[in-house]
UniProtKB/TrEMBL annotation:
<keyword id="KW-0812">Transmembrane</keyword>
<keyword id="KW-0472">Membrane</keyword>
<keyword id="KW-1133">Transmembrane helix</keyword>
<protein>
    <submittedName>
        <fullName>Translation initiation factor eIF-2B subunit delta</fullName>
    </submittedName>
</protein>
<dbReference type="InterPro" id="IPR045863">
    <property type="entry name" value="CorA_TM1_TM2"/>
</dbReference>
<dbReference type="GO" id="GO:0003743">
    <property type="term" value="F:translation initiation factor activity"/>
</dbReference>
<feature type="transmembrane region" description="Helical">
    <location>
        <begin position="463"/>
        <end position="483"/>
    </location>
</feature>
<dbReference type="GO" id="GO:0016020">
    <property type="term" value="C:membrane"/>
</dbReference>
<keyword id="KW-0396">Initiation factor</keyword>
<keyword id="KW-0648">Protein biosynthesis</keyword>
């Protein structure tokens, strides 16, 4: 028995080494050919646990969390909700039995093991990591927690090939799909203070760097006992799905599946700076329990995407769902679509608050300019969200992997139609917000012009008055200097009154000294 275990360990170790060496050979070619540039990302990640950090100590690698849904030959399901990373090799079957591994917070060990044993295309892991070598970032705007990798942000990179998308006609040849989306999370703290709006990740809790933009809701008037809306972290996430199928397989013959998801986003100094993080707020798409049901339905977990996805898949299969790749993909797509709708809801709430304030208040220039800046931020985010959702909608319409849709299956066609419908709904909410934002932007711009006109009229009145006073009291040169000031201390600007106060005080002191 011990001999068999040792033989299995040797085989697993050999497969891991072969896969790591294969990636290293591709990364080595990047020295002479740019088309291999991105493989340096995966090669660096595979050496994450030995890469020296800023203080010379190897970077900390948090263990991955895994859930396993396995099928026996009779089609019975078993869920193993929590698998330790050191137990993984003993859980992977190399026979034709079906297994779905849901991996949270991927590690070098997980990539080497699954990649080596299941011969996985490295592009699957590259699409999920979604980073570029640090040498491509020529701006050095911030110090990355990973000195060798930086998150994808095309406008900061020297080599455009690091972020160019694949042609859609080629994507159907892959055996995987990847989704980039935003997962909003509320942060509550009892006191209000200024916080950083670009939230840096706590890399002690995640191995793949993700970032988040802090959405600070527009303030509103409060009634008795009221409080402001909680801040929301708009965290960028990625999810990837892969199926192992023989070359001549149809939809019922896949044997292995892997789903990569991110852990919950945790910022540096999270509780201290931002407060307590809430779980996902999206509306459940599992039917509510009915009054006459004898057995109470399980409560859907929201602590992580891994836990939610495992629960949803088990619920789907328990209802007699097909095992087609699109049925499994639909579970992931529903979570993503639900997160998109939550994201749109936060933006819509902000637009409604701003419109209400414009209707009921008399905002001054400072408030209007602040609102204009807020609208610019929302516009940039909406444009990015719209691009990602359009990409995902087109994927479901006509760019799914050919191996997944080669054989017709009624349940799969139904799932495909449902995914298209869900993302049409998401796209509609984003377009509605974009149109509403454009109208509000025009309104705020018009109000700023009106305020400037009113300000100019007041300034002219003051200048007329000052001209009369100056002809009596001040020399012409002094008057011209005062009227020509273009700073905030000049005529018509907020600090002009303070300027006259201090000048009057100085004049009195000068008169006494004389």
């Amino acid at each position: 028995m011990a001999t068999n275990v040792n033989a299995e360990q040797v085989a697993v170790g050999k497969a891991e080494d072969q896969y790591a060496n294969f990636i290293a050979s591709l990364a080595e070619k990047a020295k002479t050919s740019r088309i291999y540039q991105r493989y340096k990302v995966l090669d660096s990640f595979l050496h994450l646990d030995s890469y020296p950090g800023p203080n010379g100590v190897p970077i900390h690698v948090e263990d991955a969390k895994l859930s396993l849904i396995s099928f026996d030959k009779s089609g019975n399901l078993t869920l193993t909700p929590n698998i330790k990373e050191h137990e993984l090799a003993s859980k992977v079957d190399m026979d034709s039995s079906r297994q779905i591994f849901i991996v949270e917070n991927i590690t070098p060990k997980v990539i080497r093991l699954f990649g080596g044993l299941w011969d996985i295309d490295p592009q699957f892991f590259l699409d999920y990591i979604d980073a570029v070598p640090a040498g491509m970032d020529i701006t050095k705007e911030e110090t990355s927690p990973r000195p060798d990798l930086v998150t994808t942000a095309w406008y900061r990179h020297q080599a455009v090939d690091g972020y160019l998308p694949i042609l859609k006609s080629m994507s159907t040849r892959y055996d995987h799909v990847s989704f980039r989306f935003v997962g909003p999370r509320e942060y509550r703290r009892e006191d209000s203070c200024k916080v950083l709006e670009r939230m840096k990740p706590d890399m002690k809790k995640m191995n793949v760097e993700r970032i988040a933009g802090l959405h600070v809701p527009i303030t509103r008037k409060l009634g008795k006992g009221g409080r402001q809306f909680d801040n929301v972290a708009m965290a960028r996430h990625c999810a990837s799905i892969w199926f192992k199928q023989p070359d001549d397989s149809n939809h019922s013959e896949w044997t292995k599946a892997m789903i990569l998801v991110d852990p919950p986003f945790e910022p540096e100094n999270g509780e201290t700076m931002y407060g307590t993080r809430a779980d996902s707020a999206y509306r459940s798409f599992i039917c509510r329990p009915l009054p006459n049901e004898v057995k109470e339905r399980d409560q859907e977990p929201r602590s992580s995407y891994r836990a939610s996805l495992a629960h949803i898949l088990m619920h789907e299969f328990a209802q007699g769902g097909d095992f087609h790749p699109l049925i499994i993909t639909q579970a992931v797509a529903r979570i993503i679509a639900s997160e998109w709708i939550s994201t749109s809801a936060y933006i819509e709430r902000d637009l409604n608050t701003l419109e209400w304030r414009l209707e009921n208040d008399e905002p001054g220039m400072i408030i209007l300019e602040s609102s204009l800046k807020k609208l610019f931020i929302l516009r940039r985010r909406i444009r990015k969200y719209q691009g990602l959702v359009d990409e995902q909608l087109n994927l479901f319409r006509k760019h799914l992997p050919q191996a997944w849709i080669a054989t017709y299956a009624p349940a799969a066609e139904k799932a495909k139609a449902y995914m298209e419908g869900d993302f049409e709904q998401v796209r509609s909410t984003i377009l509605d917000n974009a149109a509403r934002l454009s109208e509000t932007l025009g309104l705020v711009t018009s109000m700023i012009q009106i305020r400037k006109g009113e300000q100019s009229a007041k300034q002219n009145d003051r200048l007329s008055f000052l001209t009369v006073i100056a002809t009596i009291v001040l020399p012409f040169n002094a008057l011209a200097a005062i009227l020509g000031m273009q700073t905030s201390w000049g005529p018509g600007n907020p600090d002009f009154g303070r300027f006259w106060f201090w000048m009057n005080h100085v004049a009195k002191m000068h008169a006494k000294s004389v």
